[in-house]
Every structure is written in C-alpha cells, then in structure tokens.
Amino acid sequence: xxxxxxxxAFSLFGVLSFAQIEGKWKTIDDETKQAKSxxxxxxxxxxKYYGKVSQLLIKTGDPNCxxxxxxxxxxxxxxxxxxxxxxxxxxxFTGGTITDPKTGKIYKCAITKSGDNLNVRGYIGLSLIxxxxxxxxxx
Length: 139
What we know:
This protein has a single domain, classed as Beta Barrel (Lipocalin). It is mostly beta strands. It is 12% helix and 46% strand. It has an eight-stranded antiparallel beta barrel.
C-alpha cells in the first residue's frame, strides 16, 4: 500500500512540475544564436502568467523600447514586462501576448515546456503563422 501511495504521489508531482513555466529563462537570439537576456516568468494574483526582462546579456543600441506603441513606449527594456496574461490550458500556456522590445511589435503567445526548455511561439492571427524560439532554463 505504501508503494502504491508513493508511486501515485511521485507521478502527480512529476506531472505538476512538468508544466511549470515559472522561473528564469535564457532567451536566444535567432540570428546570432547567442544568449540575449534572462526573462523571469511569474504568476500574478489574477492567476495569469507574466514575464519580465530581469537581465540583459548583450549590449543593445538603445536600452529603452522606443518602438513600443503602448504603455511601455520609451521605458527601459530591463525590467520590462514582455509577456502578459498567459493562462494554463492543459500542457500549454496561451491567451496572452509577447512583445518584441527590439521592434515594439506585440504578438499572441503560446508556451509549452519540453524538459529544461520552453518553446515560446509568437504569432499573428493563427498559430500557424508565427515563429517559435527555444528558451533555456537558468540553473
């Protein structure tokens, strides 16, 4: 009986930890393949997930988001909330947005976890029309 309870508890822990996206993640530049920044993903009291730039790893031209069109316009990229309003839907986190501070463009966002990586998909309209970046867990 103890073995059965242990197995069930261990399996439940594995399932719950598999889907967690909270924590710090290293973003990788698509063109140079270099680490760009560290984004910290956290859950707010509204039950939704958000992510902010907690560290810049490469020097950028302008440290502010001059191309942003919303409340982030002219604000520093460091500390900027780039992921907003994601909700957990099974194994996926969807329903929110992601902002590219370089261009100021806002995309719909979907995130899935694969081991120590996040597959972060930004898209316009349908999820088929977009691109996916792989972010690495910061240990």
